[in-house]
């Protein structure tokens, strides 16, 4: 059974198994009569061919309270876009597939580039940002949820529990973040959260001192989960990171714009598993190697914006402090896994800690050497101020793609 602990930083919603999910759904359906709820699914085309997405679509087909489903489709050619339209056609909600690689969409991003407002690189951040812009243009939803398309243990209850805190009009919450245990295949997973984020937050407190922001981040039980729900009034001013720091970036934006009483996390599953990234130790631009660097930069940027001064000596001290804390936590995770009959490869995980320690310094060097780096995609309010017709033209491009390229 789950605990009922509250740490005083943000609200925790536990699953105490004292209420049926049917009763929860009935309540959400009543809220959705006047507060429409939409879902964003950022997807690579390759995920249509994976083991998870067909089941996700089947589960979403049972969700009666969803107003819209918006799929951002990346890395797809024309035939693949047509196939994606067929793949998602069975969803009963208003469903839109945004073909991010279409000629029309590329022309729109070139238009933004001339204004100096285009996303700097492709990826999940750009995908989510585009879907948010489309949803803003729809102007018909009070709540937006987002989750990944590679969740092999997906059940509709995950979405039900995720949206409830922000859909309930009597609650004050503007942002809800999902958490769960990352286990699968008899192993304890969640390497980046366990081996990088948790220990570096401890190390940062020791090196740069107590910061409310660090206590806030440490309150999240699975800080890198990709499951969010938020009230749409947040969206026009939401800054989306363009790199792999998306999850921490969104939490940082919530910290900047909201009070703690408006932020919560909710237990959405007993266990959870999805696609695992390769470590890619030989390639700093791929896999967990790239992800760890981007996450470190996201933390440094936020702390610097709040007045923390970083130097090369800071990062060297941080590396040493992190390394000791990470090994301590690895011991705790190893023993926890052993007690629960799960496996942890200590040798492989110590190698990952060594890689992450190097990336703490590498990210610091990049941070110090590129002070003019633009890590965030401009907000949709800024885009609208620079080009008032852009959102309408974005909607038109999506509609024209749908009209021209019928499903396969």
TrEMBL record:
It comes from the Bacteria. GO terms for molecular function: transferase activity. Keywords: Transferase. This is Glycosyl transferase.
């Amino acid at each position: 059974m789950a605990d009922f602990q509250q740490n005083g930083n943000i609200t925790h919603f536990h699953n105490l198994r004292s209420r049926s999910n049917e009763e929860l759904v009935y309540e959400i359906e009543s809220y959705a009569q006047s507060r429409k709820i939409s879902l964003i699914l950022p997807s690579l085309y390759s995920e249509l061919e994976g083991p998870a997405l067909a089941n996700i679509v089947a589960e979403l087909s049972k969700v009666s309270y969803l107003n819209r489903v918006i799929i951002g489709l990346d890395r797809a050619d024309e035939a693949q876009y047509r196939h994606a339209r067929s793949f998602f056609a069975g969803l009963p909600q208003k469903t839109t597939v945004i073909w991010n690689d279409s000629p029309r969409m590329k022309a729109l991003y070139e238009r933004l580039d001339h204004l100096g407002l285009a996303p700097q690189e492709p990826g999940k951040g750009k995908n989510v940002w585009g879907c948010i812009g489309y949803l803003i243009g729809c102007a018909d939803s009070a709540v937006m949820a987002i989750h990944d398309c590679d969740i092999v243990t997906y059940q509709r209850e995950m979405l039900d529990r995720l949206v409830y805190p922000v859909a309930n009009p009597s609650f004050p919450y503007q942002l809800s973040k999902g958490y769960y245990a990352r286990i699968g295949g008899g192993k304890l997973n969640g390497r980046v959260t366990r081996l990088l984020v948790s220990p570096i937050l401890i190390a940062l407190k020791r090196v740069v001192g107590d910061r409310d922001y660090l206590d806030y981040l440490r309150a999240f039980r699975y800080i890198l989960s990709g499951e969010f729900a938020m009230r749409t009034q947040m969206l026009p001013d939401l800054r989306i990171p363009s790199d792999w720091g998306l999850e921490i970036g969104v939490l940082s934006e919530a910290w900047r714009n909201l009070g703690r009483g408006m932020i919560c996390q909710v237990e959405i599953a007993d266990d959870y598993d999805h696609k695992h990234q390769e470590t890619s130790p030989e390639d700093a631009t791929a896999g967990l190697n790239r992800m760890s660097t981007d996450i470190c930069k996201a933390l440094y940027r936020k702390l610097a914006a709040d007045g923390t001064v970083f130097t090369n000596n800071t990062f060297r001290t941080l590396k040493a402090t992190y390394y000791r804390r990470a090994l301590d936590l690895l011991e705790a995770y190893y023993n926890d896994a052993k007690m629960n009959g799960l496996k942890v490869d200590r040798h492989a995980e110590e190698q990952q800690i060594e890689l992450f320690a190097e990336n703490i310094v590498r990210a610091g060097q990049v941070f110090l050497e590129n002070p003019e780096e633009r890590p965030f995609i401009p907000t949709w309010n800024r885009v609208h101020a620079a080009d008032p017709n852009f959102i309408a033209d974005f909607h038109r491009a999506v509609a024209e793609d749908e009209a021209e390229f019928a499903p396969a």
